[in-house]
Design brief:
There is one protein chain. By secondary structure, the protein is an alpha/beta fold. It is built from 6 helices and 11 strands. Helix 2 runs parallel beside helix 3.
């Protein structure tokens, strides 16, 4: 089993070290690490087209040889699967992200969109995120990765589908729940500043996002209840129930 490991926190982040360390303990597994050369959090599904991409071979703190890409997380996966990594990849794993990626977070998350890129290449992919921004306690996430990765590699995933896994930050995990995307509430605020030259600049600030913890069965609910959340994500985002209504809106249009 050839496993490709990536992340969006940067190739020297502790979460990716925990993930590739877990993958190397799997029987008959061969692991390749390729990730952004710096933190690319919340970059979404960025694809670099108008500037060159560079890849450097680096040695990580434990002696692991890895590849650092100058582009985004999804660039790292695209380069690897288009031929930079010569041997066929059986599964892509992304993370372990420091911070959750639930509900609508997946549209921002470089961790999840790296897995999306793999799904576009019809390679099974899993994104792993820990529900903590400050304490890198990745042991439970790594243990679950060791369980679910070989199962997914063996059984495969449907076309254009990936798994999004969120692990609660607790020593008392109750189990696993298969979930759907919940509903986030974002509390972003525009912060205005003025530089020494008198020109305005802006930060996106505000409080951390919250979410509906009462929607039983959602990813947000599961993690709040100390369950590992596993959400199957499909890249077909068509709102099929709206097609008939939308056709009725537009049926009288003519040029």
């Amino acid at each position: 089993m050839h496993i490709l490991v990536t992340n969006d926190d940067g190739i020297r982040a502790p979460g990716i070290k925990a993930l590739y360390g877990a993958m190397r303990t799997l029987p008959d597994a061969r692991v390749t690490v390729m990730a952004p050369d710096r933190n690319q959090s919340a970059i979404g599904h960025r694809k670099t087209l108008r500037e060159p991409l560079r890849v450097d071979e680096v040695t990580l703190s434990d002696g692991t040889q890895a590849f650092a890409c100058s582009g985004s997380p999804s660039d790292s996966i695209a380069l690897a699967l288009m031929g930079f990594v010569e041997d066929p990849v059986d599964i892509v794993v992304s993370g372990i992200n420091q911070g959750p990626n639930m509900a609508q977070d997946i549209t921002y998350s470089g961790t999840v969109t790296a897995a999306m890129e793999a799904a576009l290449y019809q390679i099974p992919a899993i994104a792993f995120s820990l529900d903590s921004q400050t304490e890198p306690a990745f042991e439970a996430a790594a243990a679950f990765a060791r369980h679910i990765v070989p199962l997914t590699a063996e059984r495969g995933l449907p076309d254009l589908t990936l798994l999004n896994v969120n692990i609660p930050h607790t020593t008392a995990i109750k189990g696993v729940r298969v979930t759907w995307q919940g509903r986030r509430q974002y509390h972003d605020e525009l912060v205005r500043r003025v530089d020494p030259g008198g020109r305005p600049y802006y930060w996106i600030g505000g409080k951390a996002p919250t979410g509906d913890r009462e929607e039983v069965g959602s990813d947000i609910w599961a993690v709040a209840q100390d369950y590992i959340s596993v959400t199957p994500i499909r890249l077909d985002m068509t709102h099929r129930q709206m097609i008939d209504d939308l056709e009725n809106w537009l049926d009288d249009f003519s040029l």
